[in-house]
Write a structure and sequence with these properties.
Blueprint (H helix, E strand, L loop, with lengths): L1 H22 L3 H4 L12 E11 L12 E17 L2 E14 L7 E13 L4 E16 L9 E20 L2 E14 L10 E15 L2 E18 L17 E18 L2 E14 L7 E14 L4 E17 L7 E17 L3 E14 L6 E13 L1
Antiparallel strand pairs: 1-2, 1-16, 2-3, 3-4, 4-5, 5-6, 6-7, 7-8, 8-9, 9-10, 10-11, 11-12, 12-13, 13-14, 14-15, 15-16
Length: 382
């Protein structure tokens, strides 16, 4: 693990060296002190809050509740070394600490560098490099490949992309990416280290001045370093066959998003997704996943702002059974609602209360659950 993390760090240093000629402003550009993008300060926010969660480990039979404290922060800086290039650096992180069940504590940190160079009036190219640290509960509402109780890991993903603007209403983007994911080893379980590579193709269509449509297709290939693929005859009974090949998954995602912005920072968004997840050995982890999400962001109610999100996910496994001796395929559905009411206190501070409800319904034994999370928080923005 340490060897691969060093390789990730070396790769980031090499990227900085390669980009140095592009990121150093020319003499003529450095003299333009009043350029709108030449000296933009760092933007950021800090959020501090506390709350209560009713089913921390998302268990169907042994619910455990606790109060928690949450600290979140994000920073961003936009740098324009020339009139044809930009470099955007983003950092966001969070730490959630529970009062009694400290084994559920979670930490997340993410550092992203986004570089874009305009090569012609219609074409741009660049890269995104994302380095992440995670110490989290790995939940399965998103259709994770291998759910596990808790894990700590590091990942580094490099994505190269090209943009083509056909006109002011239609834009296309093509990207390829590669990711290394290192997970701390857990006694008695196979390593979850993997490599991921893939491509994505997306388009942005401006329907009207305030309405936009996004269409995205993504293809990902997961190759695990040590974990072996499972057999359909021993589905999730904990028995592994040493002669099986290493686990390899192929995932395809198609999403369509409609966004209607009716005021500054206020919009309605509707997203539909469909996923095909294939286990390339014996369909042990293969499933089909459909999702519909509707969001209202910062709806102005005069005295406060309202944000609301409703998500429904349906997942059907193509081979995995709901119990070991059953002939019925496992089916799962998730209903997630999120409501947030916020009020500005001055120009830079706001207070909010939020409620999130998650419900999983499954035909598997003891896999259905409900969870409520309530929180009061204060956020400073500059």
């Amino acid at each position: 693990m340490l060897f691969r993390i060093k390789k990730q760090c070396y790769r980031f240093i090499i990227l900085c060296i390669v980009l140095a000629p592009f990121l150093h402003p020319t003499e003529s550009h450095a003299l333009k002190d009043n350029s709108p993008d030449s000296n933009i300060p760092i933007d950021g926010d800090i959020r501090i809050g506390g709350g209560y969660e009713s089913n921390i480990f998302l268990s169907g039979t042994h619910k455990q509740s606790d109060t928690f404290f949450l600290f979140e922060s994000s920073l961003s800086h936009l740098f324009q070394p020339s009139n044809k290039s930009i470099l955007l650096t983003l950092f966001n992180g969070s730490h959630q600490r529970y009062l009694d069940l400290d084994q559920a504590n979670s930490t997340f940190a993410n550092l992203t560098s986004y570089f874009r160079l305009k090569t012609s009036p219609f074409v741009s190219a660049g890269f995104t490099n994302t380095f992440s640290y995670t110490d989290l509960k790995l939940l399965d509402t998103e259709g994770g490949a291998l759910p596990i109780g808790q894990f700590q890991g590091m990942s580094d993903q490099l994505r190269l992309y090209g943009l083509y603007s056909y006109n002011e209403y239609l834009r296309f983007e093509l990207g390829v990416f590669y990711q290394l994911f290192d997970v701390e080893e857990i006694g008695g379980q196979s390593s979850l280290d993997y490599q991921k590579k893939g491509l994505d193709l997306s388009s942005r269509i401006s329907i009207a001045e305030d309405q936009t449509m996004y269409v995205t297709y993504k293809l990902e290939q997961y190759q695990y370093d040590d974990r072996q693929a499972g057999n359909r005859t021993t589905s999730f009974d904990g028995i592994s066959n040493p002669f099986n090949p290493r686990l390899e998954l192929r995932r395809q995602d198609l999403s369509i998003k409609y966004k209607n912005q009716f005021e500054t920072d206020q919009y309605f968004k509707l997203t539909a997704k469909y996923r095909i997840n294939d286990d390339l050995f014996e369909d042990h982890l293969s499933y089909r996943h459909a999702e519909l999400q509707a969001s209202l962001e910062k709806l102005d109610l005069h005295f406060l702002d309202l944000s609301f999100d409703l998500t429904y996910r349906d997942r059907r496994y193509t081979d995995r059974r709901n119990t070991l001796s059953s002939n019925t395929h496992l089916k799962e559905s998730f209903l997630i609602t999120y409501l947030k009411l916020s009020k500005k206190i001055g120009n830079w501070l706001s207070a909010s209360i939020s409620h999130e409800f998650t419900k999983k319904t499954s035909n598997g034994t003891d896999e259905s659950y409900k969870n409520h999370q309530n929180m009061l928080s204060f956020e400073a923005i500059w």
